[in-house]
Write a structure and sequence with these properties.
By secondary structure, the protein is an alpha+beta fold. The chain is built from 13 helices and 12 strands.
Amino acid sequence: MKSRVSDSLPQRKIIHIDMDAFYASVEQHDFPELKGKPVAVGYEHRGVVAAASYEARKYGVRSAMSAKIAKEKCPHLIFAKPRFSRYKEISKIIRNIFLEYTDLVEPLSLDEAYLDVTQNKKNISSANQIAKEIRQKIYQTTGLTASAGISVNKFLAKVASDINKPNGQKTIHPQKVLNFLEELPIEKFYGIGKVTAAKMFSLGIYRGKDLRGKDKNFLIQYFGKSGEYYYNVVRGIHLSPVKPNRTPKSIGVEHTFDENIDEEAHLYDKLKSLSIELYNRAAAKSIKGKTLTLKIKYKDFSLYTRSKTQEHYYETADEFYTNALRLWELRPYDRAVRLLGLSISGLNTSGQKTVYVQLKIPFEDL
C-alpha cells in the first residue's frame, strides 16, 4: 500500500499553532496565585466556560460547559472574568512572531492560526525547526506555551497539533501520511464530532482504514456533502490554501446534545448559554453583526433556520438571547431537539478586503 500522498497534489509545508488553554493560561500568567489551580474563564453565576486550565480539565471541566455544571464537577474551581482586551493584546504579539517567518498566516481565532512556510522569510528548509523556533519565541515573549502540528496540508496540521498537547509538537511527514491516517481513531479526525462519530461507529467505521474502505457514493449517501470531504481527507487530500487576511462572513456557535431535549425550559437555558458564548466569541474578535440566525436540528435530523436582521449591530448577549427566543417561537413544530446553534452575519468586517494567496512550488523536507 502506498504510504505517501500523491506527488501530483500541491506539496506545502503547513504549520498549525494552537496556544495551550489560552485564556486560562493568560490569567494564570498575569496572576501567579492562580498557577497550578483549576481555573475557568467565565462568570460563576451565569453563562458558560470560555476556557478551562489543564488543572480544571482533569475534573472534566471544558469550554462551552455551563458554569453551574463546571462548579459541580470541580467545587473548588476558580472563575476568572474574561479580559478580551488583554487576550487580543497578547494575540497581536504572537501574530507578529508568525509574520517574522511568513506573510501567509491564517488566523482562526485569537489563539490559533495556520502558517504556510513552504517559502519563508528566513529560508529555513525545515518546517519542524520553524515551529520549534516560533514556540520558543512565544514562550520567551509572553510566558505562554503553544503546541504545533506540521504537515502537507491544513487538515493534517490541525490533527497533528492535538497529539502532543500541551507544549509539544508533531510532524506528519508526507511519506507517512496515509499510514498515519489509517490508524487514526475516527473521532480524532478534525471535523468529525461526537454525533458523526457515533453514526460512523454504527456503520462499522472506527479508524481511518475503515473510512478509507468506503467508496465516495456510500459516504455521500450517509453524510451528504460532508461525505466527499471525509473521502478526500482520509486519503491525505485537502486542497484549501492558507488564506491570509481572511475576513469571516459569519461567526457562530452550536451544541449537539448527548440526548435529545424536549423540555422547553431546558432549551431556554441552552439558548441563554449559546447567546453568552456567541457574544464572548464575537467580542474576542471585535466582530459585530446585524443578522442573527437560529439553527435547530430535530431528532429526525430535519434542519430549520430562521434569521432576524436589524438596522443596528447586535451589541450584547442579552440582545442575542431576547431575539433568539423570538426566533424560537417561529419554529415550525414541537419536537425533541438534538442541536441548537446561533450565528451572526452582516458583519462589521464585511468591508475589509480579503486576499487569498496559494503557492505551488516543489516540496522538500518537512
